[in-house]
Structures are given as C-alpha cells and as structure tokens.
Design goal:
242 residues; alpha+beta; five-stranded antiparallel sheet; 5 helices; elongated
C-alpha cells in the first residue's frame, strides 16, 4: 500500500512539473516579436537613407537653386544653371537656347544612388546625374550634340559663375533699339572685341548700287552703352568718334 501511494505521489509531482513547463512556453514565445524589432528598425533606416533627396525633388519641380553654376564640356560649350533657368551655349559662347526640364519633357529617372533624371531635349535626351546624397550634379550628358559631330557630350561643373555671357544677338538688339536700324534696311556684321562687340552696319540699298554700303562701326556694351568708332590701323584698337 505504501509503495502504491509513493508511486501515485511521484506521478502527481511529475505531472505538475510538466504543466508548469507547458505554461511557461507561451511566455517565451511572446518575446519572439520583440527580438525581430532591431532588424525592422535597421531596414527602416536603410530605406530612409536611400530615399529621393529633397533637393532632387525641388530640381524636378523647376527649382535648380541647389545646383547653380556653369557646367562645361571639353568642346568649351556650356550649360549655365541659375535658380530657375538653364541656358545652353555653343563653343563660341553663342546662345543656343534654353533647356526645358519639367514634367512635360521628363522621360525617366533612377530612384536610388546614384540618382539621375532624363529629359527629352529637341530630338535628343539630356540626363542629369547626381551624387549619392543628391547635393551635387556629377555630370550632365547630352545624347546627341550638333557641336560634337552628333556624338554624346558630357558637361561637368566648372565654376559657380552663373552670369550669362553677353552675346552677339543681345548686342544687336541693343544697337537696333537705340539707333533705329532695321533688318529690312541693313546688314549687320558683329565682331567680339574685349568685353563688347564691334558691329558694322551695312546699308542694303547702298550695297545694291555697288558701294560698300558701310554706314558706320559701332561699339556696343552689355549695359546698353554704344557709340560710333573707327579702327586704328596702327594699334588695331577701335577709337571712339566724338
């Protein structure tokens, strides 16, 4: 009888231990989600670090203020980026035109480093590539450049200077508006001279009669100043005619 009671007591104790062990299992399983949380935080941190930088988002909306400056190619053509405009200049610094980068010309982009945005540009494409943090433009690539035998041209940052070059077209507009010359009446032959242009005005009517047609040489500056000049054959300079 005693042996029977001892056996039952042992069985009861064994069963109790098993129950306690079983009850403790859910408690340990409840800790499992907590152990995965550092991994989730790391994943979240990695995702945010590769998110599109705010400066590139602004660039996409037409705000180029984070990337202002002059970007030049090996051919000496240039792209000048101001806060809200991009101008394209030929190797002789003639203004080719504005580069329109907006949602209408947008083609594709990469959304992870290194970031880039590609736009349609005339019959070509132009791709702007940014560094991994998006705070600098590493290169601007024109897929087909008429000034490079229709080959691709790469522009890279050259200087912070954003003032637009004084062009022949601008000098001619100044002269015509201030002197009343018209394309209908005259030819214009412009020569770059230091920080100005020398413009020879040729009368079409006089030229048609067999004469040289030259009615004057004018020196024109970017601030609108212009006056008659004559060439000094000794020094090669242009002297102002009072």
């Amino acid at each position: 009888m005693k042996k029977y009671l001892l056996a039952c007591t042992a069985l009861f104790l064994l069963t109790g231990c098993s129950a306690k062990s079983t009850e403790s299992t859910p408690a340990s399983s409840n800790k499992t989600p907590l152990s995965s949380s550092p991994s989730q935080k790391l994943h979240s941190s990695t995702s945010s670090s590769t998110a599109m930088p705010q400066t590139i988002k602004k660039f996409a909306s037409g705000d180029y203020s984070a990337y202002t400056g002059t970007y030049k190619s090996e051919l000496d053509s240039s792209l000048i980026i101001s806060a809200d405009k991009i101008h394209y200049y030929a190797p002789d610094q003639t203004l080719v035109g504005s580069v329109v980068l907006n949602q209408k010309t947008f083609s594709k982009q990469t959304t992870s480093p290194s970031f880039s945005r590609t736009y349609a540009f005339n019959t070509e494409t132009i791709t702007v590539t940014f560094n991994d943090t998006g705070d600098k433009i590493t290169s601007i690539s024109l897929s087909k450049d008429i000034y490079n035998n229709n080959q691709a041209t790469i522009f890279k940052y050259s200087t912070a200077e954003t003032s637009l070059p004084f062009t022949e077209q601008e000098a001619l507009k100044i002269l015509q508006s201030s002197r009343g010359f018209s394309d209908d009446d005259s030819y214009f032959l412009a020569t770059k001279y230091e920080n100005s242009y020398i413009i020879q005005v040729v009368s079409k009517a006089i030229r048609a009669q067999g004469g040289s047609g030259t009615v004057g040489l004018y020196q024109v500056f970017s601030d609108g100043t212009n006056f008659l000049v004559k060439n000094n054959p000794t020094t090669g300079a242009y002297d102002k005619i009072e």
